[in-house]
Amino acid sequence: MIDDTDATRSEPVAELDARYSAEGAAATPWSAARARLAAAEVFWISTVRPDGRPHVTPLLAVWLDGALFFCTGERERKALNLAANPHTVLTTGDSALREGLDVVVEGEAVRVSDEALLHRLADAYEAKYGADWRFEVRGGVFHGGGGPAPVFRVAPVTAFGFGKGAYSQTRWRF
Length: 174
What we know:
3-stranded antiparallel β-sheet; disordered N terminus
């Protein structure tokens, strides 16, 4: 079971940006954003290449202990980018214009090597995505069909929620 609470951190400060919100809109509660992050299947990660150009690609992630976790191949572009610059943005949402909630999480990608946490994460991946996403844990990384895959943790520093329908833009500061 994926834990979508975070007992170690207090609730973030939520601010509605009226410039980008419908009249009468309210700030989206962090609990709604947490639920969206826990349920989302596909995320987009933005990293920075060594020459400063952006790199954006889809990936899978799980929400656990107040952070997003993802894995990637050791030699994939995003892993190489994060080794040089750990600042990243993870985004999820859908393409609907008039309904839903898009969430953007800004933070620093920190490599995870704790075996107990990696086992919990491997279980969380399988619970969320099914048996095709079962990972073994060895040597501080995930192992699956694509070879060794380091795991990264991104705890939100700042997050944004874009409510659709009754349009709103909420910023959460941690």
